[in-house]
Amino acid sequence: MPYGDNQGGGDFQRTWFDGDWACAKCGNKITRLPFKPDPSRLDQLLCQDCHREKRQAFRGGGGRSFGR
């Protein structure tokens, strides 16, 4: 999981939501989310791998090149 229960220190505690969902892109099973999913948007849920892939594509590829 990309999120720790207390990542970064402090008093912040992440709330996890358990359920039985499917990734809208690849169909993989999703059993735990760091947010409460909106029932009207369940068809847009992405698994960790598909979310990472979408985020990297949005940023223009893998990682930051800093002009290199």
For the report, how would you describe the main beta sheet?
2 strands, antiparallel
User: What's the mean pLDDT score?
Assistant: 83
Number of helices: 1
Low-confidence stretches: none
Question: First CA to last CA: what distance?
Answer: 30 Å
From N to C, what is the helix and strand string? EEH
Radius of gyration: 15 Å
Helical residues, percent: 10-25%
Strand content: 15-25%
Number of strands: 2
Structural class: alpha+beta
What would your notes on this structure say?
This protein has a domain at 17-58. A two-stranded antiparallel sheet has the order 1-2. Strand 1 and strand 2 (29-33) form a beta hairpin. By secondary structure, it is of the alpha+beta class. It has one helix at 48-58; strands at 17-22, 29-33. Helix content is 16%, strand content 16%.
List keywords for this structure.
two-stranded antiparallel sheet; 2 strands; 16% helix; 68 residues
Summary of the model, kept short:
With 68 residues, the protein is of the alpha+beta class. It has 1 helix and 2 strands; from the N terminus they run ββα.
How are the SSEs ordered, and which strands pair?
Blueprint: E1 17-22, E2 29-33, H1 48-58
